[in-house]
Specification:
The protein is mainly alpha-helical and about 190 residues long. It has 9 helices and 2 strands. A hairpin with a 2-residue loop joins strand 1 and strand 2. It comes from Lactiplantibacillus plajomi.
């Protein structure tokens, strides 16, 4: 039984890592580009890894996404702002690792309290928000002058502008993750043991 569980774990981890790579390479699969930004769907794969395999593997899958984001910022940026901000691993890698950690531990807590479906939904929502809030917050904190110039807003209006982006991107991304995480997670968890 332990052998079957290890084989399942390794195969699901490999499939999710492959999906992360595909989402980063195939246009419009992981990023939906819009003027000045791009809506992300890749966080859902990281959240699925975190709830099905645990926070460590969620962090690993998130870290792989972050590393790909960091490399792409140098060689094939996903947006005009990417070479400016995603070359900093604090913005490109750390938030993606924290998606896995946050979503994974949140799901574990709800699972222990006999609320796995609610845990899957909230892990999806919170995981998505971790990414959006940390990335946009760090851009505002570390690159305020460059971001204000890029977005063509006065520096005093940058944070309200970034909060608008968090709302316009983050809410749909969180809603999508909140819907898809229980659908996909429930199916994968059924075969875990």
């Amino acid at each position: 039984m332990q052998r079957r569980s290890n084989a399942y774990h390794i195969s699901i981890l490999a499939v999710l890592i492959a999906i992360i790579i595909i989402q980063n390479v195939v246009p419009f699969f992981g990023y939906i580009p819009l003027p000045g930004l791009s809506i992300t769907t890749i966080h859902i794969t990281v959240i699925i890894a975190a709830v099905v395999l645990g926070p460590k593997d969620g962090a690993l899958v998130g870290g792989i996404w972050g590393l790909i984001t960091w490399i792409r910022a140098f060689i094939a940026p996903t947006s005009p702002l990417a070479p400016l901000v995603f070359t900093n691993p604090l913005i490109s890698v750390v938030p993606r690792i924290l998606i896995g950690v946050g979503a994974g531990y949140l799901f574990i807590w709800f699972q222990r309290h006999q609320r796995p479906t609610l845990g899957l939904t909230l892990a999806g929502v919170v995981g998505a928000l971790i990414n959006t809030i940390l990335v946009m917050g760090l851009i505002g904190l570390l690159y305020s002058h460059q971001a204000a110039g890029f977005y063509q807003v006065d520096i005093s209006k940058l944070m309200p502008y970034l909060l608008t982006i968090i709302a316009s991107n983050g809410i749909p991304e969180a809603a999508l993750a909140g819907i898809l995480t229980p659908l996909i997670g429930t199916a994968l968890l059924r075969f875990k043991h």
